[in-house]
Design a protein that fits this description.
Blueprint (H helix, E strand, L loop, with lengths): L2 H12 L7 H6 L2 E4 L8 H11 L5 E3 L8 H14 L6 E4 L21 H7 L2 H17 L4 E2 L26 H17 L3 E7 L26 H8 L5 E4 L21 H11 L5 E4 L5 H4 L4 H11 L4 E3 L9 H15 L1 H18 L5
Parallel strand pairs: 1-2, 1-8, 2-3, 3-4, 4-5, 5-6, 6-7
Helix pairs in contact: 1-3, 3-4, 6-7, 7-8, 11-12, 12-13
Length: 361
């Protein structure tokens, strides 16, 4: 056994299986992007050490992290071995089409985008296609695929969904049927999934990667239907909330909160009206729609107060090995002075632990 892996295993085995401190509970709420593409990289070892200490909930892969499938698998083995009792969320976006972290350039068999899958396959055929992809993702040691897309392709000029064929269709029934195929295939492989982008990015006229996105005039309640259908069928993995502003759900007193920071959307609609019981994860909190308006402290505090369980940071705006520690520090400081905020952390931790119990070996 490599010395670094042995040390991480010893640290993990010496620690309690469950989080015993506020910092550990807060840490489970954080998923960050990381620098490095090899298990021997200092930055990768540092991430594994945070996971072993129970102070980091998971990692987010981007294309620069994947120099080869063999190297990605070795990193994932390191991350998983660091915390076998409470496995990390090892995440990627592998939808098919333009949104893939594992590509043919590194020997991974690519599949078409959602629009093409729906056009050429029945839901049953799509499930078989996704089952093959999911097995290969799971074999590499990943535990979460941020998909399927639950957006409706209602705006043909949409810059982030329709442009790349990321939606299965215009109707909620069609989208829900293919979403269920995607989810079933991933569950068979022991993977966690995440519906996205709540409450609906398919009608938007701008891209939240770039800046503020107002869906007040374009959005309709029909865009909630895929979520309603899947929740009724028992879906309780993750829902990713987008940085989408709607004037009717944006905070008291004429606030300007996007859905990812809005209690009205997360607690009012997602959990209250639709009855979602699983884990709420933010879209990348470094996207322009957030980063250009809010500082790190306000982003973290508002997201948690809105009902977010997992804070996702790509760590690409100003890459730093200390980002997770900064976010943890904000969470802990706020919780120490605010019992209600601490209660939110405890509730999120409980949902996260319950979901992690379903991660395949």
């Amino acid at each position: 056994m490599r010395p670094v892996l042995a040390a991480l295993l010893a640290l993990c085995l010496a620690a309690p299986a469950g989080a015993q401190t506020l910092e550990q509970m807060a840490g489970q709420m954080i998923i960050v992007g990381f620098q490095g593409d090899d298990a021997s990289d200092k930055s990768v070892k540092a991430v594994a050490a945070e996971i072993a200490a129970g102070e980091l909930g998971g990692v987010m892969y981007l294309k620069p992290n994947v120099k080869s499938l063999k190297a990605a698998k070795a990193m994932n083995e390191l991350f998983r071995s660091a915390s076998p009792g409470l496995p990390p969320f090892i995440t990627l976006d592998q939808e098919g089409g333009a949104v893939e972290r594992l590509t043919k350039a590194v020997g991974f068999e690519e599949i078409p985008n959602a629009a093409a899958v729906a056009a050429g396959n029945s839901p049953a055929e799509a499930e078989a296609l996704y089952a093959d992809m999911a097995r290969k993702i799971a074999d590499l040691g990943f535990s979460v695929n941020f998909g399927p897309v639950a957006d409706l392709a209602v705006n043909p000029d949409n810059q982030v969904i329709a442009k790349y064929g990321r939606a299965y269709g215009k109707s909620a029934e069609t989208v829900a049927a293919y979403d269920e195929a995607f989810v079933a295939a991933h569950h068979q492989a022991g993977l966690i999934t995440s519906l996205k982008h709540f409450p609906g990015h398919g009608s938007s006229t701008a891209d939240s990667h770039d800046g503020f996105v107002d869906i007040s005039r374009s959005w309709s309640e029909t865009e909630l239907e895929p979520y309603r259908i899947l929740f009724a069928d028992g879906y309780a993995d993750m829902v990713m909330v987008g940085h989408l502003y709607h004037k009717d759900y944006a905070g008291a007193g004429g606030g300007k909160l996007p859905a990812s920071l809005s209690p009205e959307w997360i607690e009012g609609v997602l959990r209250g009206q639709l009855g979602f019981k699983g884990v709420v994860v933010s879209d990348d909190l470094e996207m322009g729609a957030i980063r250009k308006i809010y500082d790190l402290h306000d982003t973290v505090v508002q997201a948690v107060n809105a009902g977010t369980d997992v804070l996702l940071f790509s760590n690409t705006a100003a890459p730093s090995g200390g980002l997770a520690a900064k976010v943890r520090g904000i969470l802990v400081a706020e919780a120490e002075s605010n019992p209600a905020f601490r209660a939110r952390i405890e509730a999120s931790y409980a949902r996260i632990v319950a979901l992690k119990a379903r991660i395949g070996g």
